[in-house]
Amino acid sequence: MVDGEWYLLYVSSGHEEQARRNLEQRIKYMDVGDKVFDVVIPTTKEIEIKAGKRHTMTKKAFPGYIMVNMRLDEYSWDIVRNTPGVAGFVSAGTKPVPLPKQEADAILRRMEEAPTEVKMNFKERDSVRVTSGPFIDFIGKVEQVNLNKGKAIVLLSLFGRETPVELDLLGIEKI
After folding, report:
1. Could you tell me the residue range of the domain that residue 93 belongs to?
2. Beta pairing class for 36-40 and 5-11
3. Residue 76 binned pLDDT confidence (cut-offs 50, 70, 90)
């Protein structure tokens, strides 16, 4: 990463890993490690709640794209664009345009960060069952979700009336 720039490549969506492997093999076998430095699939981390458990998932930030750090010349450009699985460089004209340094740094930094997004299999107005706590096995309707606090307000039928109760996201599941 001495003096290379980051470029964005089009690849077949769902085949990013295969294109990355193919490109890394070509770099190795054609001995251009001094021109093509790094190949990255931009990802983000999400927390998914399933069956009351938190799972950290790695998700592709830009499906159908990979990033390559390289020093561009005719030879390196030819090797990268003729790699099986690589459709081409993202550019405005015929010659590839590098990503702005701030943008590339932001994407790479986001890959290192701890997960911030919480993905749940329920949303507001969905019916849910309480799986833990004093209201276990009660069924209610989600009124509001607060991802920052990791809580949801659920309307439960208590003593014949719908009562809003704040519950932990891990303690409810969609039915």
Report:
1. 5-118
2. unpaired
3. very high
